[in-house]
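Hi V.,

Quick status before I head out on leave. The structure for the redesign project is tokenized and pasted below; the design run finished overnight.
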């Protein structure tokens, strides 16, 4: 069963952030369906819609991303599609 996961990343803009993130996502066999990225002043802001072909443990993915991007000092937020939809139904 396919699942959608939403990833938001905020931090200081530095070379290699997207490459590091996508390499980490590849480890989990996640597809990037959509990506939006902006530089606001010197802040890096990214939003990705990801897709997994199987059930995914969000906390494990978050820990992996935080570990692999620790040199960038990013704030990483993940939400499963069900949570994202429930938050926006109200």
């Amino acid at each position: 069963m396919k699942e959608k996961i939403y990833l938001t990343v905020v931090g200081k803009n530095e070379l290699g952030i997207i490459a590091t993130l996508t390499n980490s996502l590849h480890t989990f066999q996640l597809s990037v369906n959509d990506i939006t990225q902006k530089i606001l002043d010197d802040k890096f802001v990214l939003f990705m819609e990801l897709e997994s072909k199987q059930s995914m443990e969000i906390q494990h993915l978050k820990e992996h991303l935080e570990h692999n991007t620790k040199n960038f000092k990013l704030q990483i937020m993940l939400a499963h599609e069900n949570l994202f939809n429930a938050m926006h139904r109200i």
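Above is the designed sequence. The two ends are 26 Å apart (CA to CA).

G. will cover questions while I'm gone.

Best,
W.
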